[in-house]
Structure formats: structure tokens, C-alpha cells
């Protein structure tokens, strides 16, 4: 009765029993999609939360301390510095410590950290040319066999870093 094998599901007379309901229209004043800022390396950053505590904004030469979660672009979990029980990684709960402007960080991460204050949360989409494909020894380095294998097999793809800046320290002598 009604429709045939060729009728799409949800089409009148098809196996779904009628047209699909439409998604509700956005409400006036509803939150818009996050704005993405393009970085010089080609990466993109989404600022989730500004540093609430004020403090020094990170600049070249400063020491930074941060936690991060690394995901593939499809959201698949790879590594976290905070949660050793997720994804079988060998996280020790210790944040990453690095100095800006020295070349030790992946360019996409360093560019996103510049200008941030402690407490800032953001997501960075790091393209391969600013990530592990071009800078295989760049910080942050994941720990454990499984996460390292994930990075190695996906370094030709963009990676997503969810970063929480904990501390900004001026260079020694300042």
C-alpha cells in the first residue's frame, strides 16, 4: 500500500509514513555559531572563555603552563594531560610547561596562546603544516603507545587541541 521500494524513507507514501518534521527556526537573539579566528599558520582558534583572573597576557619569552585534550577533527579522542583513564593514555596529570617564542611549541598552539591570560579556554584546529607533520618533535608531545600511534597515523590531518591556560610567567629577570 502506497509508495514503492524506490520511495525515500519519510517521503509521502514511503516507509516512514509521511514527511519529516522541520527543524524549529532559530529564536531571535539565540547564540550564533562560534567565531573562528584565523591564525598566521593557517590554524583556526575558537575562544571559549577569556582568562577570568586577569593576570599577565602571554607574550614571546613568557613561560606558559597549560592542560590540553587532543582530538581528531571528527571528535575522536586521542590524548588528555588530565585524564589518564580516558582512551588508555598514559597521562600523568601534569600540565605542559613551555616558553613562547623559542620554537619548542607547535606553531598553531603557540599562536593561539599568545595574548591569552590564565584561565583562558580555547580550541585550536592545527593544520598539518603547523602541527606534527611539519614539527614532529614540537610540544606538546602525547604519552603512551596508543596516543602516539594515533598522532603518527593522523599527522597528515588537522588536529583539534582543547587548551586551558593555567599560568603565564615572565622571563627570568623580569
Helix content: under 10%
Please outline the major beta sheet. Answer: 7 strands, antiparallel
- Shape verdict: globular
Estimate the strand proportion.
15-25%
Order of secondary-structure elements: EEEEEHEHE
Total strands: the figure is: 7
Structural class: mainly beta
Mean pLDDT: 80
The unreliable regions are 2-17, 20-33
Number of helices: 2
Radius of gyration, Cα only, in angstroms?
21 Å
> What separation lies between the terminal Cα atoms?
82 Å
Topology:
Blueprint: E1 37-38, E2 44-49, E3 63-71, E4 77-80, E5 96-99, H1 107-113, E6 121-126, H2 145-154, E7 159-169
Antiparallel strand pairs: 1-2, 2-6, 3-4, 3-5, 3-7, 6-7
What does this protein structure show overall?
The protein is built from two helices and seven strands, in the order βββββαβαβ. With 174 residues, the protein is mainly beta. Strands 1, 2, 3, 4, 5, 6 and 7 form a seven-stranded antiparallel sheet that branches. β3 and β4 (77-80) form a beta hairpin. The longest helix has 10 residues, at 145-154. The chain is globular.
Amino acid at each position: 500500500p502506497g509508495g514503492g521500494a524506490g520511495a525515500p524513507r519519510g517521503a509521502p507514501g514511503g516507509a516512514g509514513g509521511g514527511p519529516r518534521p522541520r527543524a524549529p527556526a532559530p529564536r531571535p537573539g539565540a547564540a550564533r555559531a562560534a567565531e573562528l579566528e584565523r591564525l598566521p599558520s593557517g590554524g583556526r582558534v575558537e575562544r571559549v572563555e577569556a582568562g577570568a583572573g586577569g593576570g599577565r597576557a602571554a607574550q614571546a619569552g613568557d613561560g606558559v603552563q597549560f592542560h590540553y585534550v587532543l582530538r581528531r577533527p571528527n571528535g575522536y579522542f586521542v590524548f588528555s594531560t588530565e585524564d589518564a583513564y580516558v582512551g588508555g593514555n598514559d597521562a600523568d596529570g601534569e600540565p605542559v610547561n613551555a616558553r613562547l617564542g623559542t620554537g619548542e611549541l607547535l606553531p598553531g598552539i603557540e599562536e593561539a596562546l599568545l595574548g591569552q591570560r590564565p584561565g583562558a579556554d580555547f580550541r585550536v584546529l592545527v593544520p598539518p603544516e603547523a602541527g606534527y607533520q611539519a614539527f614532529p618533535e614540537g610540544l606538546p608531545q602525547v604519552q603512551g603507545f596508543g596516543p602516539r600511534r594515533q598522532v603518527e597515523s593522523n599527522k597528515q590531518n588537522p588536529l583539534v587541541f582543547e587548551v586551558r591556560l593555567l599560568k603565564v610567567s615572565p622571563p627570568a629577570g623580569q
